Amino acid sequence: MKDIVFCSNNCFVLYSAAVQAKNSENKESVPSLPQSPMKERPPKAFHQYSNNISTLDVHCLPQLQEKVSPPSSPPIMFPPAFEAAKVEAKPDELKVTVKLKPRLKAIHSSLDDCRPPSKKWKGMKWKKWSIQIVIPKGSFKPPCEEEIDEFLKKLGTTLKPDPVPKDYRKCCFCHEEGDGLTDGPARLLNLDLDLWVHLNCALWSTEVYETQAGALINVELALRRGLQMKCMFCHKMGATSGCHRLRCTNIYHFTCAIKAQCMFFKDKTMLCPMHKPKGTHEQELSYFAVFRRVYVQRDEVRQIASIVQRGERDHTFRVGSLIFHAVGQLLPQQMQAFHSSKALFPVGYEASRLYWSMRYANRRCRYLCSIEEKDGLPLFVIKVVEQGHEDLILTDTTPK
């Protein structure tokens, strides 16, 4: 017979066939009630749940054979968060820990205490690098650029290009050498043979005015007057910028006028510190840079004639990238063959020009041009002088 299980208050009781036989014997000893005349129904097995188990008398339970059941998957248990932190990984499992950035623990909570202590690699695989800068007490004077250059030159750790040759050209007005600042005297312009003037020194002279094409007129006239005028600031000759206040005789160099804090206006006028208005003026000019094309109007024929009169190779005449070395000469019997309707070809003419190289796209070289005589006709010679290559000589009977 099959076993029947009764459950009551979480207690399980197993009834087997032997237990049922024992109970039947106990029931026979008790006087039975008279049987009812009704026909007995066949007994049926019912699964009943009963809370009253006091009348049950269980002496022993038979040993039942264990039935082999198919393996079932174990239930998945989810431990609380704080217990999960205590679980350690098994040795056969792969555990990868990536530490992106150390984080300072500002608040110590109970969860932080439950975490396992991590290995400390400080001193074994990495170390903190710290630097301390000690500034001595007292006045510390940083080294200037010249001292740094000398120190680096002694160490031999730097490579510097060749120094640029000093510009010995001197302005005829302010007597300063070389090109000036863009927001100051500006670049040097050629006035005459070995005569140079700063652009703003000539532009801000009282007599000088500028044409629409950018030519400066009366620069020579201003230079003659400046040779007799003394600057109120530096007390040197060459001052040409005067105060435009009526009956004011104060006159300055352009650079000295800036140092004396004179006021310049957009209509090319200037007022000395004694007559300038107080405060700012809407027509005041505070920026003197000139980026437009400006040149000094001059008589080039007379200038070339002065080169011939003063002698060759004593002066340098330069126009842009073209440098004249010798003008040359023509004899009366050569006049018919050594000229054209537009130009003369004097024998002995020599000039050089810095122009783009024929070998390299981003490099310049020197072209030495000269005129010689061959069979009573002019011979034009161009000598290409380029560093790292032999001189290349090109000749032809025409300048083209």
How would you describe this protein?
The structure is a single chain. The protein has 400 residues and is α+β, with helices and mostly antiparallel strands. Among the domains are: 188-296, 2-Layer Sandwich (Herpes Virus-1), CATH 3.30.40; 313-396, Double Stranded RNA Binding Domain (2-Layer Sandwich). Helices cover 16% and strands 18% of the residues. The chain has eight helices and 17 strands. A six-stranded antiparallel beta sheet has the order 12-13-14-15-16-17, with no helix packed on it. It has a three-stranded mixed beta sheet with strand order 5-6-11. A two-stranded antiparallel sheet has the order 1-2. A hairpin with a 5-residue loop joins strand 9 and strand 10. The model is unreliable at 1-19, 25-39 and 81-91 (pLDDT under 50).
Which characteristics define this entry?
400 residues; alpha+beta; Herpes Virus-1; Double Stranded RNA Binding Domain; six-stranded antiparallel beta sheet; three-stranded mixed beta sheet; 8 helices; disordered N terminus
Main sheet specs: 6 strands, antiparallel
For the secondary structure, the number of strands is 17
Oligomeric organization of the protein chains: single chain
- pLDDT under 50 segments (min length 5)? 1-19, 25-39, 81-91
Tell me what the CATH architecture of the domain at 188-296 is.
Answer: 2-Layer Sandwich
Strand order of the largest sheet: 12-13-14-15-16-17
> What is the tally of helical segments?
8
What string gives the helices and strands in order?
A: EEHHHHEEHEEHEEHEEEHEEEEEE
What is the topology?
Blueprint: E1 4-8, E2 11-15, H1 17-29, H2 81-84, H3 110-114, H4 145-155, E3 188-192, E4 195-198, H5 199-203, E5 209-210, E6 215-217, H6 219-226, E7 241-242, E8 251-252, H7 254-259, E9 263-264, E10 270-271, E11 295-296, H8 300-310, E12 317-319, E13 322-326, E14 350-356, E15 364-374, E16 377-385, E17 392-396
Parallel strand pairs: 6-11
Antiparallel strand pairs: 1-2, 3-4, 5-6, 7-8, 9-10, 12-13, 13-14, 14-15, 15-16, 16-17
Domain PHD-type: 168-276
GO cellular component, one term: MLL3/4 complex
Pfam families: FYRN (PF05964), zf-HC5HC2H_2 (PF13832)
